UniProtKB/TrEMBL annotation:
GO cellular component, as recorded: nucleus
Any single Pfam family the record assigns to this protein: Kelch_1
Protein name, as recorded: Kelch-type beta propeller
Keywords: Kelch repeat, Repeat
Organism in which the protein naturally occurs: Helianthus annuus (Common sunflower)
Classification via InterPro entries: F-box/Kelch-repeat (IPR052439), Kelch-typ_b-propeller (IPR015915), Kelch_1 (IPR006652)
Length: 274
C-alpha cells in the first residue's frame, strides 16, 4: 500500500464520490486495468460496490458470452466492440462432454452440467476474474429452463442424475451466491426455455415425460404472489426426444420465437395468447 495516500478517496485529488462517478461511467472492459493500479482499486472492483452503484443508476451493459471449446469462454462487448478472454475453466473431464446450460446473472456466469459426481455448477466471477465451483442447487439437475433479471436467475424443471424429469424451481442470487427453492411448476419438463417478461418469469415448451411428446403450453410465475399459471399454445412444439429448447428472446417486453424449420421469426400475441 502506498504510504501517505488516503485510500478511502481512491483518486485523492477529486475525492471518493467523484472517483466513483467517473468509474461508474467507464465501460466494464476497463475494470481489469483499474484493478491493477493498486490494492485500493482492486478491492473496490472485487467488493461489487461499483457494480451495485451502476445498477442503482441504471448503467447497463449487455455482454455476450461464447464458448467454442468445452473449457474456454470469451466475452464480447457489442457496444464498444471489445473481446475479453476469460480464464480457462479448471474442472474434471466429465463436464466437458455433458449437456450444459449457461446463465449470466449479475456479476456471475454460471455453467451447469453433469460432472463425475452428478449435476455440477461452475461459476465465473466478474469481480475476481476467476472460476470456482458454485454451491449446488437444493435439487441438483440440468437441461433446465432459465432466465435472469438483474442479480436474480430462475431455473425451472430439468432432469436429475437418474434421468427423472423434474418440476422443481429454484432462484439464484448472484450477490449472495445462494439458492432458494420456489413453488414447483404445474408440469414437470425438460428441454424448455425460460424468459422474463413484464416482470414475470415464463417457462415455455419442452418435454414432460419420456414418451417425447412436446409440450405446447407455457407457465407463468408471478414473483409477487409466488403462483404458477398455465398458458396454452405458448410454444409451437415439435421435435423429438433430443429436441432443442425453443429459440426464444424478449425485446421491449415482447416475446419472439425462431422457427428454424419454417425459416420464420414469430411474435407472441399477448392479447390472443398465441
Amino acid at each position: 500500500m502506498e504510504q501517505g495516500l488516503d485510500m478511502s478517496s481512491l483518486i485523492h485529488v477529486i475525492g471518493r464520490d467523484l472517483t466513483m462517478k467517473s468509474l461508474m461511467s467507464l465501460p466494464r472492459y476497463n475494470y481489469a486495468r483499474i484493478a491493477s493500479l493498486n490494492r485500493s482499486f482492486r478491492e473496490l472492483i472485487r467488493s461489487g460496490e461499483l457494480y451495485r452503484l451502476r445498477s442503482t443508476h441504471q448503467v447497463i451493459e449487455h455482454w455476450v458470452y461464447f464458448s467454442c471449446d468445452p473449457l474456454k469462454w470469451e466475452a464480447f462487448d457489442p457496444v464498444n466492440e471489445k473481446w475479453m478472454n476469460l480464464p480457462m475453466m479448471d474442472t474434471d473431464l466429465g463436464i466437458q462432454f455433458s449437456d450444459k446450460e449457461s446463465m449470466a446473472v449479475g456479476t456471475d456466469l454460471l455453467v451447469i452440467g453433469n460432472d463425475m459426481l452428478g449435476p455440477g455448477i461452475y461459476k465465473y466471477s466478474l469481480l475476481t476474474n476467476s472460476w470456482s465451483q458454485g454451491l449446488p442447487m437444493n435439487e441438483p439437475r440440468w437441461l433446465l429452463g432459465s432466465a435472469s433479471f438483474k442479480n436474480i436467475a430462475i431455473f425451472a424443471g430439468g432432469v436429475d442424475r437418474n434421468g427423472k424429469i423434474m418440476d422443481a424451481v429454484e432462484s439464484y442470487d448472484s450477490e449472495t451466491g445462494t439458492w432458494k427453492t420456489l413453488p414447483s411448476m404445474i408440469k414437470p419438463r425438460k428441454f424448455s426455455s425460460g424468459v422474463f417478461m413484464d416482470g414475470k418469469f415464463y417457462v415455455i415448451g419442452g418435454i414432460s415425460s419420456n414418451d417425447s411428446n412436446p409440450l405446447t403450453c407455457g407457465e407463468e410465475y408471478d414473483l409477487d404472489t409466488q403462483k404458477w399459471t398455465e398458458i396454452p399454445n405458448m410454444s409451437p412444439g415439435g421435435g423429438g426426444p433430443r429436441m432443442a429448447p425453443p429459440l426464444l428472446a424478449v425485446a421491449s417486453n415482447e416475446l419472439y420465437a425462431a422457427d428454424c424449420a419454417a425459416m420464420e421469426l414469430k411474435m407472441y400475441s399477448k392479447k390472443n395468447k398465441e
